[in-house]
Specification:
The complex is a heterodimer of chains A (138) and B (477). Chain A is α+β, with helices and mostly antiparallel strands. Helix content of chain A is 49%, strand content 14%. Chain B contains 12 helices and 10 strands. The chains are: A alpha+beta (138), B alpha+beta (477).
């Protein structure tokens, strides 16, 4: 993101200091400190690692698919299942590099997982919409 | 004009007269000599015309002589006058004589001397200024060092943080340049930043206005950004007026300030603020460096305070095994789960028990049982890596906290340990001494969102594992 000019080095250092102090994901911190937008983070992941980006705002998810992963797991790892065909599950997540989370989902569902990148807000909104709860914080 | 004339007269009185007398004597000698050579000269006086002609020639010679004297004396008067000015310290004078004789050379030599003297005086002046600057700097450093020593002594004497802060922050005002100083510190329990202490101009007023209630949010506003930047920030007469700067100036009622983060080993503890209300204030490097040193001292004092508190509550080790105890687990597990949620990572909890340990205890006695636990403690300590931690949870049960490890990874670790424990006791000849162990693996978030939930789940799984004969790793599918 520094190379792309989305953020500068000083902002990156400030965000890293914040992370050291308060914890959390660097992407979330950059957004919280208003150095970048959620879309910038998602696009950076898309560009750097080649994960496809999926805007969830207008995406309809089958309730049966939603039930495949427990809500607390979705909230902690900030992910949401979006499709399931046979033993193949597709899900959108904020950090598709979170291998532990993907393994956990595979363990819980018994499916192999395909991942899309999405923004935290989109995922939280979808979680609230489909799990019908008010709380959103992981 | 008349005074100059007087001065000229006075100054030349002796030399002019002496030259006049000398010239007169030469004239008389010349006349005597002329009378001697020309005996008929007295007859000239009988002829009136000749007499007047002689008188005229004599008078002409005298005027000519006087003019020559003036020509010699005038430049000397000038030189004498200039010399007097120079003697009084005016090195901007110059003797202007356009002559090539000895007097002209004397004037040129004097001019050269004046230039040399002027250059020397300039050099001396510069040297004096440099010396003065060096002395001022030495004095400043001595005062700085003395201030720092005072704070260091307090730290060495293990003084209260409040006392060290009061002295340290007070030192920010010692140079007289800063008229206000304050300190923002992190609350170690809530991790929030608050105004801890203010001193100097308008501090009473600010306290009355509730400055202590000011909430500092990391990354927000001047204060929050200054803490995160981890570099000194200067607000002075050259700083622009952004909304954040304006807000800061209003909050602390100071137009100028130096904000220095309080941090040690990369940990942020707070922010030191020193400011004044001078209209054309420009922050100097010396002032900034001094404040950085004070900030460093305060950071050391704060770290010490944290260490002291940590030491006071450090009774978290199990004496027999050297592992952590349940007190540590009670405090640490919720923190790790919170951290895992914050980083969108899993956190596993593994409960381990020695199979049939009660039977072993009964058969071989207390000492042998304790020896087994000590060996297990050593093995667990050796096996744990990175963020992983092991603790003694009950008489013969142990807990492993495995941050950032999911169930699959934790099962692998548990299997590895089970094998090592089996191997550890396998050389025993007595079959009853060949101890094995059982493991229950749980993971946040898969098996629970809180520490008690995970522990309860792990206990249930472990019970099942023991009922199944032990020496196995179990988890909820």
């Amino acid at each position: 993101m520094v190379e792309r000019g989305t953020i500068n080095r000083e902002e990156l250092e400030m965000a890293l200091n914040y992370q050291k102090e308060q914890g959390g994901l660097l992407g979330d911190i950059l957004v919280e400190l208003k150095f970048a937008r959620e879309e910038d983070i998602a696009q950076a992941l898309t560009c750097q690692y080649g994960f496809p980006y999926l805007p969830l705002s207008n995406y309809e998810i089958d309730p049966d698919v939603i039930n495949a992963i427990p809500e607390n797991v979705c909230r902690q790892f900030c992910l949401i299942p979006i499709d399931k065909i046979g033993k193949s599950l597709t899900m959108a997540m904020v950090d598709p590099l979170n291998v532990q989370a993907i393994e956990d989902v595979e363990l819980v569902t018994g499916c192999s997982v395909q991942t899309f990148v999405s923004t935290p807000t989109d995922i939280k909104n979808s979680l609230n919409k489909y799990y019908k709860t008010k709380s959103c914080s992981p | 004009m008349s005074s100059v004339f007087d001065k000229k007269l006075l100054s030349t009185y002796a030399i002019k007269n002496q030259l006049g007398i000398a010239l007169g004597l030469i004239g008389v000698a010349f006349l005597v000599f002329l009378g001697y050579l020309l005996p008929g000269v007295s007859s000239w006086f009988e002829n009136k015309t000749l007499f007047y002609a002689v008188i005229f020639i004599v008078f002409f010679i005298l005027v000519l002589g006087f003019l020559i004297i003036c020509h010699i004396v005038e430049p000397m008067v000038k030189i004498s006058q200039e010399a007097r000015f120079i003697a009084e310290g005016d090195f901007n004078r110059e003797i202007q004589l356009f002559r090539e004789d000895e007097i002209g050379q004397l004037g040129a030599a004097l001019n050269h001397m004046i230039h040399r003297m002027k250059a020397n005086v300039e050099e001396l002046k510069n040297f004096s200024q440099t010396t003065e600057t060096i002395n001022t700097e030495i004095n400043r450093r001595v005062v700085t060092l003395s201030n720092l020593l005072e704070v260091s002594n307090l730290i060495a004497q293990n003084a209260q943080l409040k006392e060290i802060v009061e002295i340290g922050v007070g030192k920010c005002l010692s140079s007289g340049i800063m008229t206000f100083a304050g300190l923002i510190l992190k609350d170690e329990k809530t991790s929030e930043y608050h105004v801890f202490y203010v001193s100097g101009q308008r501090s009473e007023e600010l306290l009355a206005q509730g400055i202590r209630d000011l909430k500092v949010t990391l990354g927000s506003g001047v204060l929050g950004k200054a803490i995160l930047k981890q570099k000194p920030m200067v607000i002075d007469s050259q700083t622009g007026m952004s909304p954040e700067i304006k807000e800061f100036r209003n909050q602390f009622a100071i137009p100028n300030a130096i904000l220095v983060p309080i941090s040690a080993k990369g940990n942020m503890y707070g922010l030191l603020i020193a400011g004044n209300d001078e209209k054309k204030f420009l922050c100097s490097n010396a002032e900034r460096e001094f404040l950085q040193l004070i900030a460093k001292q305060i950071a050391i004092a704060y770290s010490n305070e944290l260490l002291k508190k940590e030491f006071e509550r450090s009774d978290t080790l199990d004496r027999l095994t050297g592992l952590f105890n349940t007190t540590y687990i009670d405090r640490h597990l919720p923190e790790e789960i919170k951290r895992a949620a914050s980083f969108q990572k899993p956190c596993s909890l593994v409960l381990m028990a020695v199979d049939h340990f009660e039977d072993y205890h009964t058969a071989f006695g207390h000492m042998a049982a304790e020896n087994v636990l000590t060996r297990l403690g050593f093995l667990l300590k050796e096996t744990m890596s990175g963020l992983d931690q092991a603790a003694r949870f009950g008489d013969h049960t142990f807990v492993l906290i495995l941050p950032e490890k999911n169930k699959r990874h934790s099962i692998e670790i548990a299997e590895g340990l089970r094998g090592k424990i089996e191997e550890l006791f396998s050389p025993e000849k007595d079959l009853h001494k060949r101890l094995t162990s059982s493991f229950a693996v749980t993971e946040n978030p898969l098996d629970g969102a809180s520490a008690p939930e995970l522990i309860r789940k792990a206990q249930e799984i472990l019970k099942t594992a023991l009922q199944q004969g032990g020496n196995r790793v179990c988890h909820k599918a």
